[in-house]
Amino acid sequence: MKNILNGKTALVTGGGRGIGAAIAIKLASLGANTIVCGRTLARLQHTAGLARSAGGQSEAMACDVADWNSVAALAERIQKTSGRLDILINNAGVGWFGGPLHTMPAEKWDAIFNTNLRGVFHMVRGFAPMLIAAGGGDIINISSIASKNALPNGAAYSASKWGLNGLTYSVAEELRGHNIRVSVICPGSTYTEFSPHEGKSPDKMLIPEDVAHAVEMLVTSRAQAFASEVILRPTRKP
């Protein structure tokens, strides 16, 4: 499996840490030329270094997925430098878990939806034409188990992920005729810096590499096979 993605170019948003970094390292280890993007270049460069150490090619490129002009500039740059895109991982996400919805500042709501949902729209708009030109590929959106379950004090985050699931299922139907598989992964409690873990046992939680393993399964499946949704849960409740 080490070189199964040789000749392919992958792009991972939110690749500076956590799940995004683990996915980027995994794709690079499988032979893909892996581009990591996000808002903090220093973190992205660290991930790219780890990805190269895993045996693949990797480059860090700054991009704010919530800003269409930033995404369009990234698409133009990748078209010039790589000439193609085969795998797009929409992982960038933000959340707010500070209390009930009626106490939430409006700007926090906007920030969540601009990244978690509008940002994926921007990436699909910017990069689907490149995947179509390449003859097909994979788009994988990283959602959350919060897209399936109620999340008190995190209603906006949950709503953004429910929306992401609906977007994924619909775009999958739009693009499957172009040999593009659009999938969503919904991880349960994952031990990262991102979400609160009060009262949860880290040794029972998922780790970013579990999500990366699911990505590996999706992108290395036979071209005729299409897993539209993967739900990952810890074996034992944390």
Architecture overview:
The chain has about 240 residues and is of the alpha/beta class. It is about 40% helix and about 15% strand. It contains 7 helices and 7 strands. A 7-stranded parallel beta sheet has the order 3-2-1-4-5-6-7, sandwiched between helices. β2 (about 35-40), α2 and β3 form a beta-alpha-beta unit. It starts with 8 loop residues before the first strand and ends in a 6-residue tail after the last strand.
Give short descriptive properties of this protein:
7 strands; 238 residues; 7 helices; Rossmann fold
Structural class: alpha/beta
| Portion in strands | 15-25%
Largest sheet: 7 strands, parallel
First CA to last CA: what distance?
32 Å
CATH topology description: Rossmann fold
| Oligomeric description of these chains | single chain
CATH architecture: 3-Layer(aba) Sandwich
What would a concise description of this structure say?
This protein has helices at residues 18-29, 41-53, 68-81, 106-116, 118-133, 155-175, 208-219, and strands at 9-13, 33-38, 58-62, 87-90, 137-142, 180-187, 229-232. It has 238 residues and is an alpha/beta fold.
List the helices and strands and how they pair.
Elements: E1 9-13, H1 18-29, E2 33-38, H2 41-53, E3 58-62, H3 68-81, E4 87-90, H4 106-116, H5 118-133, E5 137-142, H6 155-175, E6 180-187, H7 208-219, E7 229-232
Parallel strand pairs: 1-2, 1-4, 2-3, 4-5, 5-6, 6-7
Helix pairs in contact: 1-2, 1-7, 3-5, 4-6
